[in-house]
Write a structure and sequence with these properties.
single chain; 1 helix; mainly alpha; 97% helix
């Protein structure tokens, strides 16, 4: 091989090495930023749960009380005609 081809091969090898190092550096930064991206998303989700959880506890207890009252009304409405019958008997 003559000197021109060897120097050309050396230049191509250096350029290839520079491109590969750049690709590796970008891949590394991409992984780091992806890690922080998911850390922020999960952190915001956890923080939101921490902030909203006391309010959800209040609303959950209100919902349970309301559902208990509704079920009480449903069970009371089944016995309502019998009570009306007794009331009508008292009025006669």
């Amino acid at each position: 091989m003559d000197a021109d081809k060897i120097s050309e091969l050396l230049e191509l090898t250096k350029e290839n090495n520079r491109i590969l190092r750049s690709m590796h550096r970008r891949m590394l930064w991409s992984q780091i930023l992806t890690y922080f991206y998911w850390l922020i998303i999960l952190g915001v989700a956890g923080w939101s749960y921490y902030i909203v959880q006391p309010y959800m506890g209040k609303y959950w207890s209100m919902f349970q009380a309301l559902s208990a009252q509704i079920s009480g009304l449903e069970s009371g409405s089944m016995s309502l005609p019998g009570e009306l019958g007794g009331l009508l008997e008292k009025l006669k």
